[in-house]
TrEMBL record:
Biological process, per Gene Ontology: base-excision repair
Gene3D superfamilies (UniProt xref): 1.10.8.50, MutM-like, N-terminal
Catalytic activity: Hydrolysis of DNA containing ring-opened 7-methylguanine residues, releasing 2,6-diamino-4-hydroxy-5-(N-methyl)formamidopyrimidine
Positions of the Formamidopyrimidine-DNA glycosylase catalytic domain: 2-118
SUPFAM superfamilies according to UniProt: Glucocorticoid receptor-like (DNA-binding domain) (SSF57716), N-terminal domain of MutM-like DNA repair proteins (SSF81624), S13-like H2TH domain (SSF46946)
Protein name listed in UniProt: Fpg/Nei family DNA glycosylase
Swiss-Prot/TrEMBL keywords: DNA damage, DNA repair, DNA-binding, Glycosidase, Hydrolase, Lyase, Metal-binding, Multifunctional enzyme, Zinc, Zinc-finger
Pfam families: Fapy_DNA_glyco (PF01149), H2TH (PF06831)
Organism: Labedella phragmitis
Length: 279
């Protein structure tokens, strides 16, 4: 799943490659991906890309007309090629293309989805806030406006497990499964503890971990080509996806979070007082 650091890096790439280019056509391969049926993608044809903005795990391509919102979901991503001769555009190992934005100089932005069910969405709008997924987003933890007081308003009194709360886009925008594991590991907090149970010191640790983990990831992904971002993210994980491996801090064994079916991980020594969470 792409999360805010990777989407941020993709946005920076597109700002340097797509801005100023004129859209010649948009080819929709999978019609279910278009979420604004009353606004066809052909409205973008002839428009020039003027900017790229990130909202959580979503990207907006601004033009001199309507906006194109890309919602990546669980398995969506994008691929760039400078022309039809680019091998990346025709590799047999490339993920299925859902739509193609073709520019008048031959460059192409292909949006893809590798999931068992379609999660990628495209919307043609005049104002991104009219899209419910954007309108409901909580504060962005990478923003300067995200302070300890903002986090306190989100967690105090919430009877929800921390891992689930971190992934709740209405509470915090842009954090998914992988970075929620990494944040909780850095904060030395159990993924299953309820937010309401945190004391002030633990809330401070959680805030610092959110800022440090995401901020470091943004810096590390800067200038990484879109095709390499997923591998860079996986390689950087301390506990997520590391079941059975030694903890990089204490050498203990990284375990799966109970009930996650192997999709989430933690270190008992660092996060639950050395006692594994009950199955």
């Amino acid at each position: 799943m792409p999360e805010s650091p990777e989407v941020d890096a993709l946005g920076a790439f597109l700002r340097s490659h797509a801005v100023g280019r004129r859209i010649a056509s948009v080819d929709l391969v999978e019609f279910r991906a278009l979420k604004t049926r009353e606004r066809p993608l052909r409205e973008l044809e002839g428009r020039t890309v003027s900017g790229v903005r990130r909202f959580g795990k979503h990207l907006v391509l601004d033009t001199d007309g309507p906006l194109l919102l890309l919602s990546f979901g669980r398995a969506g991503w994008a691929r760039w090629s400078d022309g039809p001769e680019d091998p990346a555009a025709s590799s047999p190992d490339a993920p299925p293309v859902i739509a193609r934005v073709l520019f008048d100089d031959g460059a192409e932005l292909a949006v893809t989805d590798t999931g068992d069910w379609l999660s990628l969405g495209l919307s043609v709008v005049d104002d991104e806030t009219t899209v419910p997924a954007i309108a409901k987003l909580g504060p962005d933890p990478l923003s300067d406006a995200f302070t300890p007081a903002v986090l306190a308003r989100i967690v105090v009194g919430r009877r929800k497990r921390l891992k689930a709360l971190l992934q709740e886009q209405e509470s915090l925008a842009g954090i998914g499964n992988a970075y929620s594991d990494e944040i909780l590991f850095a904060a030395r907090l159990s993924p299953l503890v309820q937010a309401v149970a945190l004391d002030e010191e633990e809330r401070e640790a959680l805030y610092a971990a959110i800022r440090d983990v995401l901020g470091s990831a943004v810096e590390a992904r800067r200038d990484v080509p879109p095709a390499e971002l997923k591998a860079a993210k996986v390689a950087a994980m301390a506990v997520h996806g590391r079941t059975g491996e030694p903890c990089p801090d204490c050498g203990g064994t990284v375990l799966d979070v109970p009930g996650s079916k192997g999709g989430a991980q933690y270190c008992p020594e660092r996060q639950t007082g050395g006692v594994p969470l009950p199955e």
